[in-house]
Give the backbone structure.
Amino acid sequence: MSKHNASVSSNKCYYTLTKKQYGLLIGIALVMLAALFYAYKDHFHNPFEFDDAHTIVNNTAIRDIRNIPLFFKDARTFSTLPANQVYRPGVTTLNAIDYWLSGEKGTPTPFWFHVSIFTSFIVLGVFIFLFSKKVYDLSLPSSVNPFIALLTAGVFMLHTANAETINYIIARSDSFSTLMILISLWMFTYEKLRKYQLYLIPMAIGFTVKEPTIMVAPLAFLYLYFFVYQRGLQQLFSWKDTLKILLPVLPAFILAGLLFIISSVMASADFLPGTHTRWEYLRTQPFVIVHYVNNYFFPFNLSADTDWNVIQNPFDERVTFGILFVGFTLYIAYKSSLNALTRPIAYGILWFYLALAPTSSIVPLAEVLNDHRVFFPYIGLTIAVVWTLYNLYRKYESIISSNIFLKSLAVLAVVVYFTLHVYGIRQRCEVWSSPEKLWYDVTIKSPRNGRGLMNYANALMAKGDFKGAEEYFTKAKNVWPYYSYVYINFGVLYSRTSRLAEAEENFKYALKLDPKNPASYYYYAYFLMNNGRSSEANALVNDGLKVSPTHTDLLNLKNELTTNPLYAQDIKSKLEMLEKLCATNPTPENYINLSLEYYYQQRYLDCVRAAEKALELRPGYDIAYNNICSAYNMLKEWDKAIEACEKGVAANPNNQLIKNNLAAAKRGKGLKP
C-alpha cells in the first residue's frame, strides 16, 4: 500500500487494487459505518427544537403531500413566521414527504425525519469518498488514494461538530443541499456528464433546499483549474487561459445567477434576514471564521444557539486578528496551489471560504454565527487537513514504516481520534435529547443569549418548576428586553400560577412588540378562551390568521372556539369549563385535562383525585399516574409519588416524563435515581 505505482495520461489515472486491498478498503468502510451508527444510535427520537416549531410542528402546509406544487409558488408555506418565509420549497417538500411517510394525522413526531436525514447523511459520505478520490488521483495517482479518500469521508462523517446539523431537523437544509453539491461535483468530473450539463440538475435541486448550492459553480471551476488543467493561482490572471478554463463552467454560473434572482423574487415580502448593517456583519465574520476553524480542531464549545453579536468597533483587536488569520490561510492556499502534489490543500481551503461566503460575507443574517452553518465548509477543510497529513506521512514514510513504535503510534493516533469524536457525537446527541438539556447547555456556553435563557425557562416550566422558570425568564428579559417571546412566556407562566392581571399585561406587551408574530396572538387568545372570554379570543385568533394563515395552533384554536359548545358564550374560567365538561362527558381525557388544570392552580390533592377518576375509567393510564406523581412531588410526599410513577413506568416504559418525575421523587427522598 506504500508504493505509488501509477501514471497520469490525459487526466485519467490508472492503478489497480489487489483483492487484499479491496478487502481492507471494504473492511475499513464497514467499521466506519458501524462507528457512525453507534455514534448516532440514540438520536432518532430527539425532539423538534428551535426553528423546527414554525417550519414543521406548527406548519399545516406540510401535512398534505398534495401541497408540494404550492411550495414552489408560495414562500409563505415554508414557515408560519412571516419574517422567516424564505424561498426554500425543497426543504418544505422533504418535510412533507417525511410527514407522509410517517403515516401521521396530527402533530408530527421526529423519528421519520431523523431516519430520512441520517440516510441522506450516509449517502453524502459515499460521494465525499468518490469526489475526493478523483481530486487525489489527479494530484498524485496512487493505489493509496482510495484509502485517503475513505479517511476523508470518515473524518468528516464522524466529526463531533456535524452532530449539530444532524440533530437539528430543519438544518436538513444544510445536509441535503451539501449532498446535492457533492453529487453535482462528482458528475462534473465526468466529461460526458459535463458536456451535456447534467451536473446542473442536482445543483438546481440543492438550491431549492439552501442557497449556498450555487457555490457548485466556482468549485467546479477550481476543480478544472487545479486538477484537469494543472494550473496554480499565480496563473489566474492570465486572462485568455483562465477564460478558456471558465468556459465549460459558464452554464453553472449562469444558472447560479438565475436561481439567485428567482429566490429573491419569490421570498415573502415580510422575509427579514437580519437587522445588522452589512459592514458591521462583514467586519465580524473574520473572527467568526477563527471560531469555526477552532471548533473544527477543538469542538468543545458547540452551542445550539450562540450569543455572539456584531463587533461595533472596526479597530477592535478581534477584527484585526480575524483578518490576519484569513489572510494567512489564503496565503497557504496560494502557496499550496503552486505544486500539483499540494493542490488539494489549496482546493480544500478555498472550498472552505467559498462555502462560507453566502453566510459569512456582506449578507447580514439574524445570527452572526451558527455552528450548523459549517457543515458544507468543513468538507473542504477536511480535504485540506487530510491531504496535509498524508503529505507529512509521505515525507517521513521510510522512517515510520521501518520503526514499529512510530507505526503503532500512528495507528493509535487514528484510533484515538475517531474514538474521541464518536464520544463527542454521543455527548452532543445526549444534549439534544431533551429541551431541558439542550437549553441548559446553551445557558452555560452562551449566557448572553436571551432566547437560550428563555427556552431553558420553558423547560423548567414544563416540569412544574415555576420559581426556576421565573428566574430564567427574568434573566432573558434583562438580556433581550425587546424580545416578544419572553413576554409571551411570562404571560403563560403567570396564567399557570393564577397571576392573571400580570399574565394579560405581558401578553399585550408581546403583541405590541411584534404584531407579526403569530405566537403572540395564539397564546393571548388561548389565555382569553381559558378565562371565559371566548368572543375576545375569537377576534384575536382571526387577527392572528391574517398574519399566518397556516399556523397549526391558531387553526386548531379557531376550530375549538367554533365547534365546542362550551365556548358559545363567555364563562368565568377554564376550570369551570373543565369541571362542567367532566360532569357532562366523563372521559379519561377530560379528567386528565381537569387534573392538569388543578395542578397549574396548585390544587395538588384535587389534581390527584381527578387523575384517579381517569384511572377508574381507563386502568393503567400512564398519563394519570404521571399527574399523580407530579402532584405528590409538589407536596413532597415522596413515597406516594414513587409508587404512582413506578406504576406509570410499568404501564408505559417509554414515557420519559414519568421517568423524569420518578427520578425527581427518588432524589427528594434521598435515593439514587
